[in-house]
Amino acid sequence: MVADKTARLLEAQLRPVLCVGETLEEREAGDLEAVLARQIAGVLGSIEPDHVRRLRYAYEPVWAIGTGRTAEPSDAAEAHAIVRAEIGRHAGEDMAAAAIILYGGSAKPANIEDLMAAEGVDGVLVGGASLEPESFARICSAT
């Protein structure tokens, strides 16, 4: 379903953000890499190769969405490295190097600087904090 929707968005000349991430159970079972690989392969394996460059990616740990829990910067760096490696595996190293990968799990003023300093984090996808103007402004000014 995600692959189909992504293909249709790309065909409509839009630039979708492909969100990937694991549940708490998958994380605790040590399945992070397998889950992200499956999610990325499911999309990149079914879209036109020249469309890949228009995709943006976001690592969205399901266990952090709306819970107030946030991945440590080292967790984000690990997941972003996996995402980049999978892009490389399916679309080539040049595409992987050029890919924009955002962190999307409960970014907030208290953790934005550490997240942005994490290796491989190109930006953040802000959720609930964007509903609070003061918090969102602090996130924007930090990035």
Keywords:
alpha/beta; TIM Barrel; 48% helix; 4-stranded parallel β-sheet; 143 residues; 7 helices
Description of the structure:
With 143 residues, the chain is of the alpha/beta class. The chain has a single domain, classed as TIM Barrel, CATH 3.20.20.70. 48% of the residues lie in helices and 9% in strands. The chain is built from 7 helices and 4 strands; from the N terminus they run αβααβααβαβα. Strands 1-2-3-4 form a 4-stranded parallel sheet. Helix 3 packs parallel to helix 4. The longest helix is centred in the middle third of the chain and has 19 residues. It is globular and about 40 Å long. The N and C termini lie far apart (33 Å). The model has no long low-confidence stretch (mean pLDDT 92).
CATH class: Alpha Beta
Radius of gyration, rounded? 15 Å
Give the overall average pLDDT: 92
Return the structural class. Answer: alpha/beta
What is the β-strand count? 4
Concise description?
This protein is 48% helix and 9% strand.
Task: Walk me through the topology.
Layout lengths: L1 H10 L5 E4 L3 H5 L3 H13 L11 E4 L13 H19 L1 H6 L2 E3 L8 H6 L5 E2 L8 H10 L1
Parallel strand pairs: 1-2, 2-3, 3-4
Helix pairs in contact: 3-4
